[in-house]
Amino acid sequence: MATLLQLFSPPPATKTCQTFPSSKTPFFFQQAHRTSSRTDLYRIRSSKFGNFLDLKPELKQEFLDFDLPLFDPSKKSLLDVIIIGTGPAGLRLAEQVSSYGIQVCCVDPSPLSPWPNNYGVWVDEFESLKLENCLDKTWSMTSICINESKTKHLDRAYGRVSRKKLKIELMERCLNNGVKFHKAKVWKIDHKEFGSLVVCDDGNELKASLVVDASGFASSFIEYVKPRNHGYQIAHGILAEVDSHPFDLDKMILMDWRDSHLGNEPYLRANNSKTPTFLYAMPFDSNLIFLEETSLVSRPMLSYIDVKKRMSARLRHLGIRVRRIIEDEKCLIPMGGPLPRIPQSVMAIGGNSGVVHPSTGYMLARTMALASVLAAAIAEGLGSTRMIRGKPLHHKVWNGLWPIERRYVREFYSFGMETLLKLDLNGTRRFFDAFFDLDPYYWHGFLSSRLTLGELAQLSLSLFRCASAPSKVDIVTKCPVPLVRMMGNVALESI
């Protein structure tokens, strides 16, 4: 569920679906997933049981091998669109916009570098995007461990995205559509009446009718008018070779809220009761698994050290001995908070545009889908016979991404996040116990950001009916303040 802060940009997120039998390792891992040598075994025996924190990741990601068509700045020609960043959001938007015959140039210091994040998606989402060929593993079901005595099995397939396949797919589409690239970092953007000047760290200046920032949440080019009071999802994940693990190979673990592993850790258990974390697990085979300890949302942000300690205690309790760490990742996702100022001179897509799901942290599939919506708005402005520029163009593209109905829906999701922030471990368990008892249409739609405002209201009523008595008390006592805040924000958006 979690992904990195810079999920949609590297540093300055219909073919038959490909799956792999549980007895075989996906091709991506074949080289890394090998038999341990005598040196490896000595290291395992000499390390503490379950103490994976001393192990270092071994897999080195390779750069893509493409002969990129580079933009020639010396020609001083005016581009239609400059996109800053070549993460999933940047490349997806470049591919979509260029399909309209619009000139696009992606600016990134290292456009062929590998994406560092692990992406998990609902299979039906990627099927609707015609990107299911970019999944390297799927599970037919997902599981939610509410507590030690209750587990829910969900009949919705989940998949792990192959970062390499997805980047190759998007890059090939971009090249086929004539997208150009410029290898540099953007220093500043100067705006004129009918265009913008992008100043790069290599001394070159590029001109375009529209600049789109897809460089991630930390970008300084996007303006806000309200304090950025985000919640934060933080996690530590490892792709590991283990002696064994207790999970079914045909199910991925979406959330494991059990806390029996903290029975001998009173300090960690007390903190976990207030600000809980869960385990997210993707078993590839009996010895290869992706494990991630995740804080769904916290404010202030939960300590990363606490997350790692809780994960270490959990693996020790489950009897999971880590032999090797193939990859690791630190995940930090800002959630909720205000939208950017609408409109403004620089367009945004990805982590800095407000598309992160405020209640879950999901954003990859949503951004892939919204990129086509934004591309259509850009094409309507730049590709029309009127060829609008400047402020009218900025107004069109920002409102294309964030029409008023979509802003209302986002306020509802932010209300959900604010409610989750007020729940302790037991309250969180009760909430998800009721949530996943809803009609699948509603919980599918909520997690995939595809419900209307009216459907979200119906979901709320159904959730209250499904909730246990203690959970109803939580809703009545802890929802009013976030509810009033949501209604106020909706009223402001209506003005």
Explain the overall architecture.
The chain is α/β, with parallel strands linked by helices and 495 residues long. The protein has helices at residues 27-30, 38-46, 88-98, 123-128, 163-176, 266-274, 304-318, 364-382, 390-401, 404-421, 425-435, 440-447, 453-466, 469-478, 480-494, and strands at 78-84, 104-107, 120-122, 135-139, 141-147, 150-154, 158-161, 180-182, 186-191, 196-200, 205-213, 231-242, 251-256, 278-283, 288-298, 322-335, 346-348. The chain starts with 26 loop residues before the first helix and ends with a helix.
As a percent range, the share of strand residues is 15-25%
Task: Work out the helicity level.
Answer: 25-40%
Question: How many angstroms does the end-to-end distance come to?
Answer: 35 Å
Total DSSP E strands: 17
Describe the sheet with the most strands: 7 strands, mixed
The mean pLDDT is: 88
Which class do the helix and strand fractions yield?
alpha/beta
User: Radius of gyration, Cα only, in angstroms?
Assistant: 23 Å
Tally of helical segments:
15
Uncertain segments of ≥5 residues (pLDDT<50)? 2-50
Shape: globular
